[in-house]
Structure formats: structure tokens, C-alpha cells
Amino acid sequence: MSSVRIGVDTGGTFTDVVLVDEESGQIVTTKTPSTPANPADGFMAGVHKVLEAHAGSRALDAVSALVHGTTVATNQLLEDRPDGTSHLGFVTTEGFEFVLEIARQSVPDGYGNSYFWVKPPRIVPVHRVRTVGGRLDHLGREVRPFDEEQAADVARWFRERGVTAIGVCFLHSYANPEHERRMREVLRREHPEAVVSLSSDVLREYREYERSVTTLVDAAVKPIMRRYIENLSERLGRPFSVMKSNGGVLSAAEVVHQPITTVLSGPAAGALGAALIAGTAGHPSAITLDGGGTSTDVAVVVDGEPSLTTEGSIGRYPCKIPMIDIVTVGAGGGSIAWISPEGTLKVGPRSAGADPGPICYGRGGTEVTVTDAHVFLGRVPPHLLGGEIPLDVAAARAGVEALAGRLGLTPERCATGILEISAFNQSNAIRQITVQRGLDVRDFPMVAFGGSGPLLACRLIDILGLRAAIVPPDPGNVSAFGLLTVDVKNDYVRTHVARDPSPAAVGEILADLEAQAAAALDREGFAEHVYARSADLRYYGQAYEVRVPAPDGPVDEAWLAVVAERFHAEHERLYGYGYRDDPRHAVEWVNLRVSGIGPITRPKIAPRPRQEDEPSPVATRDVYYEQWGRTVIYRRGDLGAGAVVRGPAVIEEYGSTLPVHPGFTATMDDYGNLVVVSDDR
Predict the structure, then answer these.
(1) pTM (whole model) above 0.90
(2) 169, 232, 661, 680: which has the highest count of C-beta atoms within 10 A?
(3) Calpha distance 437→93 (Å, rounded)
């Protein structure tokens, strides 16, 4: 029996599944509705469904690897549920109990210096913050000894109040983790039921506030992640891996110890899958747009690699773990259209999700969504997933008409207005990830995927002046496909602030980080290890750093000079200036980083056979673009390489739909991607 690899991406509306047969190279895709009450149910249903489609059997015997993308770890924080962090406590250094209250004293964009802004609740309220005596200096030297008796009192205090998840962040523990480790031993002895996260394990770099919040997010999601992983492992009866937000995967057994690394794991997989698809088709740099039921995730790929950041966040909580630089906007197929108190039409960020879903799902939804607008305008077929989910077109029409009546608009203008607002929300996310990063959006094609990603492709080309939109085969399953394209990857960081670093000290830190990476890869069963070094540098006096890649090999003065030169060049590229030849602006080293990578064999995308004949439509129906008109419908599976579809038209497939507006042309390339361009360019 041939072995297969399976990727499962759990989204807000659908669970997407991709199977790759390692012997034949065959790729099988499917989707199943997500089950928000217990995501494991949708996961298992999807795995059994794709196995049955491939070999007619639901047995897991042939599965050699199973990779999962999930947002279970962070949903409670993203949704800001009042009880989401009620089990959470915080231990910090004596005298620093208000580190979460003070934060960065910054006001969000859009408020300026307005005194109307109210600081949101902290992840841990001050009455659940405890302090312990003991102090280290910035080099990790002990100034005052750790107060073991006070630590025991703190542990008992948490135990008596039922606080079962505890984050520990002591001052300067990035330089010396000894006090934090002793606190963990005290908690194990006095409060064994508690799960504990240490900042020196989660994020060993300076900036106390960000390190504290990142550690607390890790502690907050550990209990739910452990339960979810244990439930899945028991039902699968076999090991599996989980996608991380840094673009790598990790075994489920390891993920339970560092659940924060799985934030945005599904969107990260989508960006990586889209990068491989675009690169294979000859586009090493691209914008990726992942449109789902709840939100749209946007990233940028440059020279085959998605951009990384450590300045991300989970909801309103800053998290400085390495993650693919993704901008998320609440503009998905399930985004709800509503009327503001001022009487204007708004769309999102609230979503109907999978349950009850849009009105057209017929599951009790009562609010008009983006999907309902598409259905009313005829741009989406009257069913989803090849007929598995019939849509109630009449109910969608009634909902749009009722909303239009409240706005004083025709139903057509109301529906197109909903889609226009959604398109501008998506375009703003694209501008944020490109223009605000110093990139010209017109230099990139856009890879549009996800169930709702291709629906607004033509409008985004117009709004942003994009070169083209690329719609991959099975666009609704690109994130699940991306899960099968990524290596095992762990990131390690150490703060080392110095204006004139010693090569010996830098080399010693990098060797220690590489040893940690090697141990983790050994546990994952990898004989081949790859290490990627990088460093965060800044000009002396600056508050934030620029990360640059660092060479392999021994560390000497020439090695330090290469990294410094890369910093000057990158600073100039990002900000338009640098101080390469100005001795008044010294270069300061801040953090040293190592990524340990266990490489895998990626699936290959096979070329499609050419189509010499003119493609034939399979049906027609009334579709509204600028006006109602009888429009040709194509089945994507009938199109071969070289096929050309001119708008107005609609191209349908199992998991998604591409409306080709008047004035646009879609051409299938050699790898099955539909390349959409404006006829005016």
C-alpha cells in the first residue's frame, strides 16, 4: 500500500484537507464544515473523507505524516471572552507588579492624544499579580538572592484561589534563567496542578513588558491546547505535527510545551503554500491573499520567502515570537453587513461563521453577509462543495432586499455596495503589508486563494493597479496544501547588547543556540540539521532593531563586519538612509538568533496538458456585474493549459468560484493556475 501525507487546516467555516500520495504524486483535496464546539470532530471527518476519496477506505494505516494548522490555541484571546484568562496568574520581580498596567504608555492609531481612549483590561488584572524578592542585573549577575519563602507563599496563594495557569517573568531573566527555574520548582512542589510558563523558555530576549505578555499568552493557552492535542492524539491513535507561525512545523508532543508558537498557524501555511505555487509558476515574489469565511489574511513573498516579523500580536496582546508577517482584516465570506448609528452601510468585522452562517445556508442566520450578496448577484452558484451544501437563494434575496429597504437603496446597489466595502477592506490590508513596508504594490502579482479569496480578485486588480491575480487550483485548500510544504523549524534567541561585541562571546552564544536547536531536531528524528543565523542590530540610541541574516562559519572580526554591512544596507532600504560612513552613529548589537531546520521533501506540482480548443461553457445564468445579463458558466476542471476565458463569465470549482468581470480575461497557465488580468493593461 502506498504511503500518503495529509494536511488539515481548520478554519472558522470549513476544515480543508489535502492528501499527497508519496508514490504517485497524486493530490486529493476535500472540505468539510468546521465544528466550532469541538474542532476535533471536523478534523476527523475531513481526514476520513479524504482517505475514502483516495483509496475507498477510512483506515489511517497508509498515513505516513499528518500536519495540522489550527487556531485553537488563541481563539479565546482573539474573541476577548471575559472568562478567557480568568484562570491566569502572573509572578514577577518585587517592585515590578505594575509592568502590565504601565505597558508602553502608547495610544492606538486613530486616537492621537485623545483622552476619550480607555485602556483595555490587562491580560492579568493587578489583583492576580504576585511578586517575589530577588534581583539580577542586566548581565545576569545576582544582586539579591531569590526569596524561596516568599515564592512558596505566592504559590500557595495561587493554589488557594484556583489559579491554574501561571506566567513567570523576572527582571533580566533573559541573561540568567536561574531564578525563574527555581520559581518553577517551588510551584511544582506547592501547586502541582498548575501549568507554568517561564519567560526564559518562551522568549529569552529583553523588553520586560513584551516578554511578560508573550509568556502570559503562552500560559493562558496551554491548558486548552493540551486538552485539544490529547483529544486528537487519542482519536487518531498516532503522532501528528502542528504548523507554527514561523513557517515551520513541530510534533504535537512538543507543541504542548510551547503552544504560543502555533498562533496564526493556518494563515502561515497559506502564505507558504501560495509561495510554492507562485514560485513554480515563475513568480518568486507575490502578494498572498487568503480569503476565508471569517477573515482575510494578507502576506508578502519576496524571492520565494514570506516576510517574517517579531512585532506581531494576538488580538490586542503583543507577542514577540517569530511569525510570518501577516495582516488580518475581518473581511471574509461570512462578514456581516450592518447599518451604523449614523445610517451608513458597514461590513465586518463580525462574522456569521460556520454556525449559524450566512442567511443562504438555511441554518438560522438572519443577518446579510458577503456570501449572501454574491449569491443574490448570481456570482456564486446555488450550492457549495459541488452540491454538498445547497444554498437558499430566495432567502439571500429576501435578506438583501430587507437591508436595501432600510438603506433606501435598490437591492442590486446594496449588494454591490457590500462587496465594494469588503474589497476596500481587503485592499487596505494589502496596502498595509506593502506600501507601509516600503514596497510598491504594482510590482507584485496577487495569489488569491481560500474559499472566498478569488471572489473579489477583479475588483482588487482595479483598486490597487495590480499586475495580475493568480488563482491556484483548488484555491480553498491552499492552506492545507501549504502544511505539506514546510520543514520542521525551531527558533532560539538570546539578548546580547554590545556596541563592540567580542567574536568569542558572539560565537559562544550562537554555539549554545545551535546546540539547543540540534537537541530539538534530534527529538524530532532528523539526522540532517540546517541552521539559519540572524541578528538584530540598531544605531546606538534607537529604540528598535533591524534584523539581518548572518553567515555560517566561525565568528571573527570579518564575520562581524559582514553582519554590520548587511545592517547598514537593510536600514537604508527600509528607511532611506544609513550611517555606514559616519563614526558618530555606532552600530549596536541587540539579539542573536538561530533557527534549527529539519528539511522535508516537498510535493511537486505537475504541469497540466495543453488545451487547443476554445473552452466550452457548461451552463448560463443571470449574473449582475454592471447590470443583469445572461452569463456563461465554466467548470474549471474542464479547462486545460492555455484556455482563455473572457469576461463577463463565472468559473466554478469544488471549493471556490472566480467571477470574471467584464473587461477582464482569465488564462490558465501550464500549472493549472488561472491568471486574471485587466484588458486595459
Answers:
(1) no
(2) 169
(3) 37
